[in-house]
Fold Phosphonate C-P lyase system protein PhnL.
Amino acid sequence: MIQVSGLQKSFTLHNQGGVSFEVLKGVDLQVDSGECVVLHGQSGAGKSTFLKALYANYSVNEGQIVLRDGDELVDITSAQPRRIIALREQTLGYVSQFLRVIPRVSTVDVVMQPLLDLGVDKGICEEKAKTLLSRLNVPERLWQLAPSTFSGGEQQRVNIARGFIVDYPILLLDEPTASLDAKNRKVVVELIHEAKARGAAIVGIFHDEDVREAVADRLVDIRAV
Ligand SMILES: Nc1ncnc2c1ncn2[C@@H]1O[C@H](COP(=O)(O)OP(=O)(O)OP(=O)(O)O)[C@@H](O)[C@H]1O
Ligand SMILES: [Mg+2]
C-alpha cells in the first residue's frame, strides 16, 4: 500500500539567514495492507515531518512515495494537486494531533463531512458519526455544538471520529492518543484493530507505550540527524 524509497527532506529557513538542515536522510519504508507500522525516534527526529510528507503536505528533496489507489500506483512526490485531493478523499486519511476547528460548524457535521463528500447518504453519515462519537465517549449534549470550546481531549476525540468516519485504505496517525485517558486510549486501539482487520495500512506515532504495544506490527526508527 505504501512504498517509500530514499526519502530525503531538508528545511531551509529563508527568514533566518537561509539556514538549511536535513531532517530525513534517505528513509525507506514499505507498509502492506492490514499492517500497522509505528514510527519512533526522539523528539525532533522527523516523525511528524515524515507523516506530513506521506500526506503530501510537505514537498521532499529526493526519493519516492508510492501509494496504492485501487489498481493504480501514485507517486505523490510528483502527482498533480488534483490527484492528491482525490487521493485524500478516498484513500488517504490523516489524523493530526490537533483538531483544526471551523467556527459554528457542529461536532456531528465536522465528523461526518469526509463521508458526505464521498456522496454517501446524509442519514447514514450522521448515524456513523454518532456511533463513533458515542464510542469515543463524547457526551451527547456536545454533538450539536461547535467543538471550538471543547477541552483538548474532547477536541482530539472529535478529530479521531472524523479520521475514522471513512474506511480509508491508508491511515496516518500523528499522536492521536496524546491527551486521552486510558479508557479512551483503549477505544482508539480498538478502532485501529478494526481498521487493520478490514485491510488498512497504517503508519502511526504514539507516545504511550501501551498503545504502541497493542497496535504495532513493526517499529521503524526515524533517526535524528
Ligand atoms: N515547517 C518546518 N520548517 C522548519 N523546520 C521544521 C518544520 N517542521 C519541522 N521542522 C524541524 O524538523 C525537525 C523534525 O521535526 P518533527 O516535527 O518532524 O519532529 P518529531 O519527530 O515529530 O518530534 P516530536 O516527537 O517532538 O513530535 C525539528 O528539528 C523541527 O524543528
Ligand atoms: Mg511530532
Summary: The longest strand covers residues 19-31. Residues 47-48 surround magnesium ion (ligand 2) (CB under 6 Å). The radius of gyration is 18 Å.
